[in-house]
């Protein structure tokens, strides 16, 4: 059966598949099914977590939950809700989940641009030879009033080195991009072993203040929308061309994602596919 599977919807299953590759263990934040006991324990340990639907996409339903002075707070979309006790916060959060299966994920304190969190979309595709390549990396900066970075939620798309190099230098940017591509190849190889019919993945990678990448999510039917917003069209051209080899066509209408200001744009991160 797995030999025919091309997409997996459960985030928990995808997390467990990722964890089968030992080299990725340190790059996967703790992720568990939602429960009162687990939420309390993870907030005590980490201070901040994300609660997200086990199935779904586009950042819909993702909530940031944290302990604050004098109580607890969670953010859903643009709305922030504050509570004096854990019990009151939990009951409100449980109602927000609406009976759907949710997960709790350790919160990563990610890098920020102008005060807004950002992460990265790494596109992995299988070539006719069976080799996985990284065909693009794009940075996604959250909408000013939201905790999620998705373009569909009003995020702004940048070439990744435009955000990393000014702060950490070009060498650090180059090393980080290489590390993300390596993580992408390891993840793709593991999914390829588990699901041989799979042809593409979109990894959502967060980077913490020590420049360590974390795998927030693995998308098995990724939307290439972010790459249409990069100044250099090379990545999206590669992505579309590679997808034709395995019979997928994309809808490249990307109305909600925003393009980075021209003054902040340079060359795209991938003049050609990043391969090992």
TrEMBL record:
Q: Which Pfam families match?
A: ATPgrasp_YheCD
Q: Which InterPro entries match?
A: YheC/D
What is the official name of this protein in its record? YheC/YheD family protein
Q: Which organism is it from?
A: Paenibacillus whitsoniae
Taxonomically, what lineage is the organism?
Answer: Bacteria, Bacillati, Bacillota, Bacilli, Bacillales
């Amino acid at each position: 059966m797995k030999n025919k599977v091309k997409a997996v919807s459960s985030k928990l299953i995808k997390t467990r598949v990722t964890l089968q590759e030992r080299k990725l263990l340190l790059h996967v934040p703790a992720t568990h099914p939602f429960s009162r006991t687990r939420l309390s324990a993870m907030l005590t340990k980490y201070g901040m977590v994300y609660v997200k639907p086990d199935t779904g996409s586009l950042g819909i339903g993702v909530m940031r939950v944290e302990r604050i002075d004098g109580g607890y707070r969670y953010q859903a979309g643009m709305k922030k809700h504050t509570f004096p006790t854990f019990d009151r916060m939990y009951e409100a959060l449980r109602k927000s989940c609406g009976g759907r299966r949710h997960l709790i994920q350790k919160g990563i304190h990610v890098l920020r641009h102008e005060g807004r969190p950002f992460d990265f979309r790494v596109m992995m595709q299988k070539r006719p030879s069976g080799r996985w390549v990284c065909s693009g990396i794009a940075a996604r900066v959250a909408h000013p009033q939201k905790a999620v970075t998705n373009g569909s939620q009003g995020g702004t798309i940048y070439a990744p080195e435009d955000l990393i190099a000014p702060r950490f230098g070009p060498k650090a940017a180059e090393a980080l991009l290489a590390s993300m591509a390596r993580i992408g190849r390891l993840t793709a190889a593991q999914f390829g072993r588990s699901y041989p019919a799979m042809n593409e993945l979109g990894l959502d990678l967060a980077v913490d203040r020590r420049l360590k990448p974390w795998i927030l999510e693995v998308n098995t039917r990724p939307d290439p929308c972010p790459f249409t917003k990069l100044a250099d069209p090379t990545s999206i051209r590669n992505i579309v061309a590679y997808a034709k080899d395995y019979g997928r066509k994309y809808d490249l209408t990307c109305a909600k994602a925003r393009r980075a200001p021209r003054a902040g744009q340079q060359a795209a991160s991938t003049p050609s596919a990043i391969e090992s």
